[in-house]
């Protein structure tokens, strides 16, 4: 029976951007054995990580500028491959914003640990961002509805309940949600004032 | 979704049983209601296994009793997800237990199925909410009470987040419709009978039209019994609740419960043949005198819904299972129920019942279809 990590990897698209030396070949074989869809690229392309779920890339100066995403909007989990003799700068490493690091020489257990850590951290961050995004939308919708209601109360000299009913009826007529209608009203009233 | 579209349906390659966690209090002051959710869960699992399991594999529950203690809810959730390798948990009644478990379920990427009414204003990508949110019970309850009894309300609740938030919402409904909240009192979660005496004395002085109760667990029995001891009349001043079910009515005495009002998606006795089958199976397993209630029913249908989704994707991995759960419909005893994809909450039915002298409820209001869940009250922040 395959391990949970293997089952997870077998669903993923992986990009490996590493030197095609002995260690690099070892890493590539290890990844291919998981049944993941693995693409090996070298040198590092200008826009790394498009159409990938997981990226493994050699550390280099200026690496942070080579990704297909901006910081905070990563679309793939990231493992940075670090040189054996520790010839790297911590600050440059940090700028790459990895979810995990993997040191040469690549040992199987260390590879698995780095993959697991990277996938776990990345997916947790993604879930939290989804939750935050929903919360932001909901708060904005609530605020827009309050503002639109207040606007209608003043314009039409109505009480709160009546103003809300006007808003609701307008939304139903236009076949949009109350939140969408309220947002439009708020935007146009801001332009007018 | 994480992963390639072509791999939806990727299975976990296993042939052993599907292991799920079950986390309801079977002891302590919340056992009165949570035991019924445990039963609902187990009946559903038994039915699934008797029909051959899911894709030929048995569902095996790992059951823990958190004993009405939130720290044990946390400990067992962690144990299930981090040590037992379980990914799906059916559990929790109180909002405080759900909130206690939430960070663990989110960090360890589990899927908690939560079969209980709650105060809304929450969305977690790791919870499927199958109980009523306020727009699915508070609104219709208020409508009915204002039309039939009046709008001077007195609030009594257990002292934790759910009653306080539900009262905040009900207060808005009352006040915006020209009514008045004439009292608001909270009792401790493990309240003894005596805690209700000063409250009922106050109610006697203030003379509300309705007593709105969000008291949960065993203390519910004390509230209603004390009300009866004080000689109040439910025909003129009922206790109206979101939480008092057939289970609490059985515990307090049918004569004590008669005439009081509850809002819920399900009452025993509704639901055509699917409802009747469910009730008869429950009674066969637990005794003719045992009643089903909204919490049993939600615990039951959520397992059925889980099974329907699992059958399609053949893996318990939440990243694969959850997207399929969203939008799935199941034939629940309350009627067809769909998990609303935008918020992971069930679109449940909305009903109001008045308790009869035999401990069952007669339906005095029923929605014409499932009510779309709106946990943040975006679509209907006020009653309209």
Q: What report would you give on this structure?
A:
- With 193 residues, chain A is of the alpha/beta class.
- Chain A is built from six helices and five strands.
- A five-stranded parallel β-sheet of chain A has the order 2-1-3-4-5, covered by helices on one side.
- In chain A, helix 4 packs across helix 5 and helix 5 packs across helix 6 (178-192).
- The longest helix of chain A is centred in the C-terminal third of the chain and has 49 residues, at 108-156.
- Chain A starts with a helix and ends with a helix.
- Chain B is an alpha/beta fold and 384 residues long.
- Chain B is built from twelve helices and 15 strands.
- A seven-stranded mixed β-sheet of chain B has the order 7-6-8-9-10-14-15, with helices on both faces. Chain B has a five-stranded parallel β-sheet with strand order 2-1-3-4-5, sandwiched between helices.
- In chain B, strand 8, helix 7 (219-229) and strand 9 form a beta-alpha-beta unit.
- The longest helix of chain B has 20 residues, at 31-50.
- Mean pLDDT of chain B is 93; it is low at 1-10.
Query: Low-confidence spans of chain B: pLDDT under 50, at least 5 residues?
Result: 1-10
Biggest sheet record of chain A: 5 strands, parallel
Indicate the percent of residues in helices of chain B: 25-40%
Q: Give the end-to-end Cα distance of chain A, rounded to a whole number of Å.
A: 67 Å
Kindly state the mean pLDDT of chain B as a whole number?
Answer: 93
Total number of β-strand segments of chain B?
Answer: 15
Helix content of chain A: 40-55%
Count the helices of chain A. How many?
6
User: Given the C-alpha coordinates, what overall shape of chain A results?
Assistant: elongated
SS field, number of helical segments of chain B: 12
Strand order of the largest sheet of chain A: 2-1-3-4-5
- Counting DSSP E segments of at least 2 residues, the number of strands of chain A comes to 5
Biggest sheet record of chain B: 7 strands, mixed
- Portion of residues in beta strands of chain B equals 15-25%
Oligomerization category of the chains in this entry: heterodimer
Main structural class of chain B:
alpha/beta
Structural class of chain A: alpha/beta
Q: Which series of helices and strands of chain A comes N to C?
A: HEHEEEHEHHH
């Amino acid at each position: 029976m395959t391990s949970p990590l293997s089952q997870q990897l077998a669903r993923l698209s992986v990009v490996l951007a590493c030197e095609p030396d002995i260690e690099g070949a070892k890493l590539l074989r290890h990844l291919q054995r998981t049944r993941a869809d693995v693409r090996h690229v070298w040198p590092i392309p200008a826009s790394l990580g498009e159409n990938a779920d997981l990226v493994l890339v050699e550390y280099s100066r200026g690496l942070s500028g080579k990704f297909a995403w901006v910081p905070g909007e990563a679309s793939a989990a990231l493992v940075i491959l670090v040189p054996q003799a520790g010839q790297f700068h911590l600050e440059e490493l940090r700028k790459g914003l990895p979810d995990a690091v993997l040191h040469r020489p690549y040992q199987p257990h260390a590879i698995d640990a780095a993959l697991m850590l990277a996938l776990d951290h990345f997916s947790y961050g993604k879930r939290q961002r989804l939750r935050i995004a929903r919360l932001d939308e909901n708060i904005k919708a609530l605020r827009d509805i309050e503002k639109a209601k207040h606007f209608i109360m003043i314009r039409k000299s109505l009480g709160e309940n009546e103003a809300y009913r006007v808003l609701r009826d307008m939304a139903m007529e236009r076949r949009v949600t109350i939140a969408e209608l309220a947002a439009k009203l708020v935007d146009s009233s801001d332009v007018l004032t | 979704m994480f992963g390639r579209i072509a791999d939806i349906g990727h299975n976990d390659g296993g042939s052993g049983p599907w292991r799920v966690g079950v986390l309801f209090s079977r002891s302590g002051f919340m056992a009165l209601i949570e035991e019924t959710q445990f039963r609902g869960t187990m009946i559903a699992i038994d039915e699934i296994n008797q029909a051959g399991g899911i894709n030929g594999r048995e569902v095996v529950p790992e059951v823990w009793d958190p004993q009405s203690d939130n720290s044990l809810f946390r400990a067992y959730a962690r144990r299930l997800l981090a040590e037992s390798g379980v990914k799906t948990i059916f559990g929790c009644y109180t909002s405080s237990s759900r909130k206690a478990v939430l960070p663990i379920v989110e960090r360890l990427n589990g899927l908690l199925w939560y079969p209980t009414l709650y105060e809304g204003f929450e969305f977690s990508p790791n919870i499927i909410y199958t109980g009523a949110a306020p727009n699915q019970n508070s609104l219709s309850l208020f409508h009915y009470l204002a039309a039939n009894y009046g709008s001077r309300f007195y609030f009594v609740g257990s002292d934790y987040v759910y009653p306080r938030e539900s009262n905040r919402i009900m207060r808005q409904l009352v006040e915006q419709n020209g009514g008045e909240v004439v009292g608001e009192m909270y009792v401790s979660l493990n309240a003894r009978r005596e805690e209700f005496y000063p409250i009922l004395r106050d109610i006697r002085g203030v003379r509300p039209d309705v007593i709105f109760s969000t008291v949960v667990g065993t203390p519910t029995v004390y509230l209603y019994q004390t009300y009866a001891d004080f000689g109040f009349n439910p025909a003129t001043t009922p206790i109206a609740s979101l939480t008092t079910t057939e289970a609490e009515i059985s515990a307090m005495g049918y004569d004590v419960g008669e005439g009081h009002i509850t809002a819920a998606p399900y009452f025993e006795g509704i639901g055509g043949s699917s409802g009747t089958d469910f009730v008869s199976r429950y009674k066969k397993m637990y005794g003719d005198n045992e009643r089903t209630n909204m919490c049993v029913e939600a615990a039951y249908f959520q397992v059925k819904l889980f099974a329907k989704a699992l059958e399609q994707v053949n893996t318990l991995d939440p990243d694969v299972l959850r997207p399929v759960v969203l939008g799935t419909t199941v034939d629940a005893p309350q009627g067809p129920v769909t998990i609303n994809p935008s918020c992971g909450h069930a679109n449940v039915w909305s009903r109001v019942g008045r308790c009869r002298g035999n401990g069952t409820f007669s339906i005095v209001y029923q929605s014409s279809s499932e009510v779309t869940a709106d946990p943040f009250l975006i679509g209907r922040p006020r009653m309209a």
